[in-house]
Amino acid sequence: MNDLERKILLNPGPGTTSDSVKKALVVNDICPREDEFGDLMQDIVEGLVKIGNGEGEYEACMFPASGTGAVEAMLTSAIGKNSKVLIVKNGAYGIRMADICHSYGLNFDTVHKYGEYPDLTLIKEKLSAGDFTHLAMIHHETSTGMMNPLEDAAELCEELGIDLIVDAMSSYGGYPIDLMKTKVSYLAASSNKCIQGMAGLAFVVFHKDKLDELKDNTRNFYFDIYKQWYHLKEKNQLRFTPPVQISYAFHKAIEETIEETVQARWERYQENWQMLYDLMKELGFTFFLPMEQQSKILMAINLDEKLPKGFDDFHDYLYERNITVYPGVIPENKTFRMAVIGDLNKEDMKYVGEVIREYLANQ
Ligand SMILES: Cc1ncc(COP(=O)(O)O)c(C=O)c1O
Q: Are 351 and 8 in contact (CB under 8 A)?
């Protein structure tokens, strides 16, 4: 890896990967129908369940897709003809869940507006008044950097006897989600965020009690959770062509997640986030969210007079120095985003601080 430059990706995934994950991409050519490859895939799904402490109770399946594929698989496989889902639509990815349900004609309603913190009392009222069977929520809303209250939502779902569907795209592997404790029914994420692999695989972890329901509900051909899960279990293969090399890298990334432990990764992310937050605060920037709602994985920073030449100029200056920052997506609020997803450390954050100070000094 000597000839590769170190890139500090502060976009919310695909993130900076370790050298060992990069090296894992280079393997002998292999047909993915071979048992040897099937065993690797089985190992991956087992690892995905282990990351959420769900062994024995949970199953997982994978699709060659970006993260949206897993969300689409989860919603279209879980929401049957007699089901109805309430979606917490408080950011771009909540909106995406509603868009998916709309595209497939699934029975759904929404609660909350962009940037609003979920109000569990309101959600409970809505759920109790309607004939809902599922609640769907983003865990970490990557558009605003808000950590939605997963544990509280899980408690509410248990109390009301409904299923909880979670898009944990930008938290699973980087924040300790305990599947057994939260009793999440379905959770979606991808290879290239907090598990720190490369893009190309998306997955759904689900409670094994859901298998019967999943078997009967076939609204989707490619993104059918039951078929995908069954095929790997029974035939030791994915149904359709997997990204072979990406799978080896993902296997390595899962191994590294388990070795580091999700708890230690979460602590590393929080420390890196705090360093960036303190830096930006000291430099006079303000933030879209109050501290208590911040995920400590990503921050949306107000794009005010601190950057008179605009975001693109700031981005380009940092990019030329191997740092990538990310534009914002909050309607009616000009923001940009910085995330700490990936194989990043304190030295990286110090370097980011030096470069940003240098940029501002030269304004
Ligand atoms: C919470 C959340 N859900 C879904 C997605 C969609 O993932 P992808 O862009 O890989 O399709 C993202 C991407 O950032 C996300 O953060």
A: yes
